[in-house]
Amino acid sequence: MSGSVSRSGSRPPTLGGRKERLDALAATAADGPGDAGVSLAASAWRRLRRNPVFLLGAAIIVLFVVVALLSPWLAAHDPTARLLEGQVSRARNEIPAAQEGFPLGGDQVGRDLLSRLLVGSQQTLMVGVFATVIGLAGGLLLGTVAGALGGWVDSLVMRVVDVMLSIPSLLLAFSIGALFPSPSQFTVILAVATVQIPIFARLLRGSMLAQRGSDHVLAARALGVRPRAIVFRHMLPNSLGPVIVQATLVLAVAIIDAAALSFLGLGNPDDSIPEWGQMLGGAQNVIDSHPNLAFWPAGCIIIVALGFTLVGESLRDALDPKNRR
Amino acid sequence: MLRYTLRRLLQLVGVVLVLSMLIFGWLRALPGGPVSALLGERGTEEARRELTAQLGLDQPIFVQYGKFLGRALSGDFGASTGVQPGDSAIEIFLQRFPATVELSVVAIVLAVLFGIPLGYLAARRRGGWLDNLGVVGSLVGVAVPVFFLAFLLKYLFAVQLGWLPASGRQTGGLDATRVTGFFVLDGLLTREWDAAADALAHLVLPAMALATIPFAVIFRITRAAVLDVLDEDYVRTAESKGLTTSVIRRRHVLRNAMLPVVTTIGLQTGALLAGAVLTEKVFAFPGLGEALALGFERRDYPVLQLMIIMAAMVYVLVNLVVDLSYAVIDPRVRTR
Amino acid sequence: MVNTRTAAWGLRRLATVGLAGAVALSMAACAQSQRGNTDGGAGGKVGGTLTFGSEGAPKLFDPFYATDGPTFRIAHQMFEGLTGFKPGTAEIAPALAEKWEHTPDGRTWTFQLRKGVRFHDGTEFDADAVCRNFKRMSGQTGAGQSSAVSQYWVDNFGGFADGAKPSLFRSCTPKDKNTAVIELTRSTSKFPGLLGLKPFVMQSPTALEKYDANNVRAQGDSFSFPEYALQHPTGTGAFKFGKYDKANNTIELVRFDDYWGGKTKLDKLVYKIIPDETARKQELQSGAIDGYDYPAPADWAQLEKDGFQVLKRPAFNIMYLGFTQKNNDKLRDLKVRQAIAHAVNREQLVKTQLPDRAQVASQFFPDAVDGYNKDLKAIPHDPEKARQLLAEAGATGLAVNFYWPSEVTRPYMPNPKDIFGAIKADLEKVGLKVNAVTKPWNGGYLEDVDQAKADLFLLGWTGDQNTPDNFIGTFFGDPTNRFHTGSASWGQQLSGELKAADEEPDAAKRTRMYQDLNKKLINEYLPAVPLSHSPPAVVFRKDVKGFTASPLTSTGESFAPVSKG
């Protein structure tokens, strides 16, 4: 389950008791040998195509990615230019209102809010993708090593994972972010990603373990296939289903978590390149006098996070072998 | 069973020890520190050096850790330098833990109150509008950043409408008597009804913000579990035996579906008890989460060390209790 | 099978419920309400309770060992010094001493004490009590001598009675019941205003002894304080200590009925600790508190519109752009520092980024402080001149490390990020290359600045008392300060001049010396660029009356005359 920075308290924002779900997911992957995976995917896709929840989520994601890619051309103004600076006054808490050419008005220092929202999608997408990739890579390494080798390596890795999981996730992210001499977008990504590492690790390890005793692995071993080949050709591909589900969910969590870090003042302090979480975090002081400054980025985050969550959950359902019956 | 429990407890000791080491080194590796927080603008290189020495922060880290461990074994976890300066860290923990427990309990109760009936109904009418609405609704709850939701709730119900208090645990000047540290319970025990009601009112909004994720989880698990059970042979058998629907529901479906749900509730509670940093911060609720946030801001090592270790311990312990109760409830687990 | 399980379940559940009930009952039996029968007994709000939002928990209640604002704020209501401040100003005024005089050398001070003053424990305040207080303060031993514990004493008086380090304090003698004579080892501009600072207030000698007030011990990574400092602070002020409900983050003070200064209006003064700025504002808006300190300047207009009183205090602070002369050779050249001063558009900065009524600073302290030089004009904004000066110094295109702090707001610096942004743009306009470095305030910023890692940095100061020494003495007095003036050719000279001015006993002459020094600091030394003075505010509900905002902020504002409703 994706440990959510955003809910600090409740580590698993995605659904299910942590361990049970992880094990269930792992078991899904170990359910059958490789060729069954194909038919599983095929049948999953068949069901997904007709699932309105999945289609809604997918539509949101596609729109989000398209906007992110095209945003430099979509934005009417330079998101870093303080075009409306003359209308800003700290003392009187004046922030430029909506006006011609600036349909959403300006931000606290007079930059065009709409352009910042549009361009902000890029950074937000980046935070989500990079955090997920880093978390996945770390988890992949730990989980594969532990699951494939077993024995004391497994025990050691899993103790480390247990320790990481037992720290409130927000704090973990917090501390990782604070470890660096000065916070930046990179440290935010790293902080959010670190929280995900033990989760991916556990997921992969469980799946690997389940497969170690499975028929197709035993068969491969009996045939004299080299251990490395078994791991990479047979065990890893079979674990991909749950990993993809988890990764999709983590994308949403990462975006929310980055916003939470900004809210706590641990976000990227350099706001020349906009990012939604940072915009939301930065607007918290003016939320009651200028709610639009918070509502727009918050709305964007919620919609995009919902998109990823919908897709992730419907993927999970679709890949659940029980549903094939 | 006993051996299993002992082994788990022993593991817990190991986890705590490793964790304490990690956190100790980790905090001290962070830039800045309590010296900056204490001196502020008054800092000079000399004052800084002096205070660093006084706090023992100039010694090699393993020496510091050794001393910390020695004192910790005798129950002394050091005194706070920033959260409640001068108070012992353990005292702060003991004050704030009941607050977090109260909040978590109310949040879980809310989540259960809505999650289980809705999950059950959604499963009964799978694919219906209630089901789809519930699924999407629970996911929307997950997608909203909790601090934003907390803000919204506070702004609407506390600031604009004035129905509920905006922050804190209890109104100042009530002169409420403290017995257990659980304010609602204290009010009931001492028959200071107004104090109990006031404390309860302070819990509602943060608990609502906090309950969204447990609600979503419990809803989904209930729904999935009920679906699973409806599919089981014994339900079909019962149906074929001609038992009435309500009997089947009561005796077979709900009871058997409850197992994973109970587990989930336990795990969710464990996670909440670790301290809800964001929610507590928004509502200035003096629980563990707020202490963590403040401790970080002010680099309060003793408080951070203890809080993180305790949070981890609570989390691991609740997990253990859940596993054990699982074994008690379901004989199949025990025989395995 | 199913049925037996049900039965087992039912039994177990019954047992659990029964047990819980028994526990609750047994607890109820021993849980007695401890509410007093006086006002507030019925719960709910009483007419005379005012609740004030404080941004942090007080460290303790014995101000002698404190440095933090939350402690001083509360201490100010419970304690008084020999001297005090005229309400609404930083001028020294009589408090527990009605008048005083000093010998021409400024070393012997005779205080005439107010008569009929009692401490909260009923004991009498007299000359003997004064001297026992001084004996206590100067006689600290062990951990009590640590500058982290007795910081104000160490900063202002120096050493202790054991003579290990020189001390400003020599002796205190009760001449008669109401006359105390204090002897100093040298003259200083800080005296007698110093005695109005919260750490040096008069505390009940009986209570100090009874509750072991000096028993401070180093404990692990920190210090543990005695019972006196935690539960029994005993002063002469209008309010006495009630209780500190740590679980609920509230501190209650109650009216002291024998207060010499007349009847206090409020029955109770409650401080509620709300660390989060937005939460304080919303608590006020929802009516849970009656006022709070330091509302964000951006909220002032809104709060006023919502019908609250935003009381703006006269500015008693300074924000400056500091230079560290240690590492960047070019910064040792006065012309480069002057160029930077000319480059910064301070008028614009004050107008767009700082609160209402903020002013451009022409020198390092505000005009409320004696020794302010009215003839000194702020260095004008002149980018052309700046470029020219840089060229003359061969520093065109100079690269500087410019530090700014995140995760903090200070009364003199409400929004560091935007202030930094504006100054950075100004510097870049004259061709400087700015390498921006940001660190969290407690997470490396102060550390790096103090260790001279920054070429340029933003910092400031809020004054404790009305003496130039409290500002420029603190900044530049010790040559190993954070500006590293010691590494400049004039650093020692500046220290000497500051010391000479501080030790001048004749007030008029001293003022002139400081005026000259201010001029030199700007025209000849320029160790930093003074930027602005910003007025901090305090906000109350409309029905709170009688509060006088002071430039000294909460340490100069008494709740004795305040009434509610």
Automatic annotation (TrEMBL), chain A:
Protein name: Peptide/nickel transport system permease protein
GO cellular component assignments: plasma membrane
InterPro entries: BP-dependent_transpt_permease, MetI-like, MetI-like_sf, OppC_N
Pfam families in UniProt: BPD_transp_1, OppC_N
SUPFAM superfamilies: MetI-like
GO biological process: one example: transmembrane transport
Keywords of the record: Cell membrane, Membrane, Transmembrane, Transmembrane helix, Transport
Residue ranges of domain ABC transmembrane type-1 in the record: 121-312
Transmembrane segments annotated in the record for this chain: 53-75, 125-153, 160-180, 186-204, 243-266, 294-315
Membrane-topology annotation of the record: Multi-pass membrane protein
Cross-referenced Gene3D superfamilies: MetI-like (1.10.3720.10)
Compartments in which it is found: Cell membrane
PANTHER family: D,D-DIPEPTIDE TRANSPORT SYSTEM PERMEASE PROTEIN DDPC-RELATED (PTHR43386:SF1), OLIGOPEPTIDE TRANSPORT SYSTEM PERMEASE PROTEIN APPC (PTHR43386)
Family assignment from sequence similarity: Belongs to the binding-protein-dependent transport system permease family.
UniProtKB/TrEMBL annotation, chain B:
Lyase in keyword set: no
Occurrences of domain ABC transmembrane type-1 (ranges): 97-326
Membrane topology field: Multi-pass membrane protein
Entry-linked SUPFAM superfamilies: MetI-like (SSF161098)
Main localisation: membrane
Keywords: Cell membrane, Membrane, Transmembrane, Transmembrane helix, Transport
Gene Ontology biological process terms from the UniProt entry: transmembrane transport
PROSITE patterns reported in the protein's UniProt record: ABC_TM1
Chain segments annotated as transmembrane: 9-29, 103-123, 135-157, 199-219, 257-278, 303-329
Gene Ontology, cellular component aspect: plasma membrane
Keyword Transport among UniProt keywords: yes
Subcellular location: Cell membrane
Family: Belongs to the binding-protein-dependent transport system permease family.
Designated name of the protein: Peptide/nickel transport system permease protein
Organism this protein belongs to: Streptoalloteichus hindustanus
TrEMBL record, chain C:
Keywords, in A-Z order: Signal, Transport
Signal sequence, start to end: 1-31
PROSITE patterns named among the record's database cross-references: PROKAR_LIPOPROTEIN (PS51257)
Example GO biological process: peptide transport
Domain (Solute-binding protein family): residue spans on this chain: 91-479
GO molecular function term, any single one: peptide transmembrane transporter activity
Pfam family, one: SBP_bac_5
Top-rank taxon, per record: Bacteria
Keyword Transport attached: yes
GO annotation, cellular component aspect: ATP-binding cassette (ABC) transporter complex; periplasmic space
Classification via CDD domains: PBP2_DppA_like
Annotated family: Belongs to the bacterial solute-binding protein 5 family.
UniProt-recorded name of the protein: Peptide/nickel transport system substrate-binding protein
Organism (species): Streptoalloteichus hindustanus
